[in-house]
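Exercise 3.2. Students should predict the tertiary structure of the chain below and write it as structure tokens, then compare their answer with the key that follows.

Predict this chain's 3D structure.
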Amino acid sequence: MEGLVLYDLRALCFPTGVALKQFGSFRLDAAKECLWTNGEEIALPPKPYAVLRYLVENPGRLITHDELLDALWPETFVQPQVLRTYMLELRRILGDDTASPRYIQTLPKRGYCFVAPVTEWGGTESAAAATASALETKGIVGREEEMVVLQGHLRAVADGQRRMVFVTGEAGIGKTALVDAFSRSIEISGEAMMARGQCVEGFGAKEEYYPVTEALSRLCASADGEAACRVLARRAPAWLAALGRDAGPLPASGSAVRLPGDLCAALEELAAARPLILVFEDLHWADDSTLKLISALARRRAPAQLLVLATCSYRDTITDQACKGLKQDLIMRQLAAEMPLTPLTRSAVRQLLIREMHQEPLPPGLSGFVHQHSEGNPLFAIAILEHLMAQGFLVRESEGSQSAWRPSGSFQEMEAAVPDGLAQMIELEIERLSADEQRMLEAASLMGIAFPVWAVAAALEQDSQVSGEACAALARRLYFVRRAGEDELPDGSRSDFYVFGHGLYRQVLYQRQSASRRAARHKRIALRLGELFAGREDSVARERAMHFEAAGDWLSAAIALRSAARHAQERQAHAEAEELLQHALRLAGNLSEIDRAAASRVIHDELEAAAACDQEPVEPRSRVS
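Answer key:
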């Protein structure tokens, strides 16, 4: 947040009347021919600056290679490859990604398109103060750039450009917190009217326009309510009557129906005098009528000081598919913008913990532990912190008149159990999937964060092709599963592998299986590993031992660990061999008395041999010239 305040206050130093082009957290300064971000000046070479300026001054449309070359190098022959070099440099400076561009989109064999919203900026202290105050009030961190982008959309709306923005991201990533902070900044600055509606799961099939009705009710009850009711009574009386307010005598019987066009006209008239912001939360649960109304608001061509702001996350429901289709269609037609929220950085998680614990410095290692296990998800981070406090891993200690949270042990030694509240939330998401999909994900969790298709197939005694197609389908739909690549197996075939986006999801999926089911699936994976690496079992012996141990097959696990120890000895990793044999000895303790005695004698002999090898001096290898 401090960077944002500095950014806005330094901007006050620019001469009055000098317009800067703002996009994201960047401002293009035509007077100095440079770029600004977070109060810092970025000097650009003349040609990359010229390329960026041309794109920024022509946002939202295709700029062909020829147009760009003619504009910047008139009557001069220049290889098109030069443009690619400049684009790579600009993307590096902007932190842009070709796979998911936020600023410069490449259209293969055609040209480029600047996809970020661009606004004129002159710098106002009130806007900076409102933004800073809102962030402080809501206690959110790491979203300064997103707040700047939303303020940019608001300034464009004030110029008569209607805007539609989808704030997207996984559950708990902070979509509502960001919108709350933005709304608070509007309340502080008084820049616009605001109406908010909440979409509720299950209501879409029961009550059409539910979030719209809620938003209109709030608007009519606000300080701007009197003006809103007058406009609705004149332009959309059926909508006002549906709110339980006096709309006067309604015309013909057919006019009692709530027509989307009437409401669109009323909202545009209301927004003619002052910007209007409509916020719809959890749009993935919206009814079809609400989605059609939003589509109409975005597509109407008349100028309007109207901003529609919607939060949504994708859960693969029927309404979710409709919401996703609307978003993609409007963005493709350049009638909407998407703001995907990414996980918090480690420094942002640290700031979040400081605010939650009301202390600085933090216990050593805490921020790293929480960031690692929450993977930057703010909701997960807070839940993990509360879990550490509830379980006594963090204790409140007094020092004189002061008190602070201290760890009761090393964070490296703590098990990151899934907090109950998070486990229930994740369980609800999993329950929305089909029984077959749940089985697939449970089998995948047996391997860890990363899982190959062949292992899923082995665990479920399923054909690998069937498992591969099912995993691919899940990765396309679920945000917490993604494809990570492919491996070549010993028989020359290839197997895709995937990863869980969150370790907490993998833990919940693993723990929800019965012990007997987990054991049977682990054993199948171990046996399949032996088949795949027949003749080279030693190279995967450690992995096989892990699965045999999880299956409770102590003898097979001990045998596999001895095999892994031999493999370590061959690599002269004697300490590793001893560690593996000690582990095998501990597992042998679970065997029957006769088997335990026999296994222990063999393992002790191998331990003595490994210890002897470890003590022998290693002769230096002769140098080969």
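Discussion points: The chain is about 50% helix and 15% strand. The first helix runs from residue 2 to 11.
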